[in-house]
């Protein structure tokens, strides 16, 4: 399924050829922000394994593909926790290339992953958002029907400071 958010950007399923761009987008957030708690960016092999695991689980991994700039964002529904009882609960991930924010890409990506969440396979989507700098992501998730369900204080440490996280949740189906 491909959805267009403008004449020049389409939301479509990710393929292996997209992973170098996905990795570059994510690397910016790893090295410069607390949006992710990763200290090091995953390798291309890591991204390939993630793409395959998400596909095997029947969940969406999507990219925003610009006719002019290539892949400018991505989103997927990944595993929330590894224990069996959490199998139908997912955690969303959404990132947009630096310089491409404010164009509706995050909204288009979140809308598409929610729309493509199969209710037989996904019953809950959880967003885990760094409170510091996360106001935009929190507002985005609220617009798509996510409720704030919790806040954990000082659970992540990056760039020599403690970071709180906000948990948001939306039921599917």
UniProtKB/TrEMBL annotation:
Q: Which PROSITE patterns does the protein's record reference?
A: GNAT (PS51186)
The entry's keywords: Acyltransferase, Transferase
Q: Which CDD domains match?
A: NAT_SF
In this chain the N-acetyltransferase domain maps to 9-173
One GO molecular function term of this record is: acyltransferase activity, transferring groups other than amino-acyl groups
InterPro entries (alphabetical): Acyl_CoA_acyltransferase, GNAT_dom
- Protein name (record): Putative acetyltransferase
Q: Which organism is it from?
A: Gordonia effusa NBRC 100432
């Amino acid at each position: 399924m491909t959805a267009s958010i403008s004449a020049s950007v389409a939301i479509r399923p990710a393929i292996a050829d997209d992973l170098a761009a996905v990795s570059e987008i994510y690397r910016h957030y790893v090295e410069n922000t607390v949006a992710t708690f990763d200290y090091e960016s995953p390798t291309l092999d890591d991204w390939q394994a993630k793409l395959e695991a998400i596909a095997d689980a029947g969940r969406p991994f999507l990219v925003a593909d610009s006719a002019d700039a290539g892949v400018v964002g991505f989103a997927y529904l990944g595993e929330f926790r590894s224990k069996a009882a959490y199998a139908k609960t997912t955690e969303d991930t959404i990132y947009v290339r630096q310089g491409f924010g404010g164009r509706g890409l995050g909204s288009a990506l979140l809308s598409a992953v929610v729309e493509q969440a199969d209710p037989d396979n996904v019953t809950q989507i959880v967003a885990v958002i760094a409170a510091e700098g996360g106001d935009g992501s929190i507002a985005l998730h609220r617009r798509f029907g996510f409720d704030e369900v919790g806040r954990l204080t000082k659970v992540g440490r990056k760039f020599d400071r403690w970071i709180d996280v906000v948990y948001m949740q939306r039921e599917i189906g």
